[in-house]
Amino acid sequence: MILPIVAYGDPVLRKKAKEIDSEYPNFQKxxxxxxxxxxxxxxxxxxxxxxxxxxxxxxxxxxPFADDDELSKDEQELLKGFKKxxxxxxxxxxxEEEWAFNEGCLSxxxxxEDVFRKKTIKINYFDENFKEHTEIYSxxxxxxxxxxxxxxEGILFTDKLSSLKKRLIKGKLNNVAKGKVNVEYRMKFxxxxxxx
Length: 196
Fold this sequence. Notes:
The protein is of the alpha+beta class and 196 residues long. The chain has helices at 27-40, 73-80, 139-152, 163-178, 192-195; strands at residues 5-6, 45-47, 57-61, 83-105, 108-126, 132-138, 187-188. A 5-stranded antiparallel beta sheet has the order 2-3-4-5-6, with helices on both faces. Strands 1-7 form a two-stranded parallel sheet.
């Protein structure tokens, strides 16, 4: 089932999400719905807060990036099968130089900006079977994970922009909260009723 994606301005996007365990109700169905919702919106990642659930769960499928000719063959190969579920994730360290990449977010349509992030991360998480992993990712794989991880920490990519950039996009962000955007997927706008 395709779920509505919560838009910028909803308080759930600002909450630090809570851990869950294997007893979480209808968990496999939730994962199916989240993947279906993400693919429907042509996203490469989706976090539970983006569908209104303040829990430490996100999923990624960076396969679309595997066709990028500007990436090394090794990175293309890694991204080809980079489809994962992250439960109760904790980033243990972020290393190497920061690098910029143009990011967007399904909760903030029509806004894309260059965001600086560290190149490599070490992350501890549980997979969809609640099996624990500690892994290291670099490049675009790390970036996709960092972006979604921020969501379970109550952080949006726009928080990482300079004060000037934030001022320049303020009007666009207000329009997103009010539902004054054209999107091809279902969304829930926090200020749509009041703002129109």
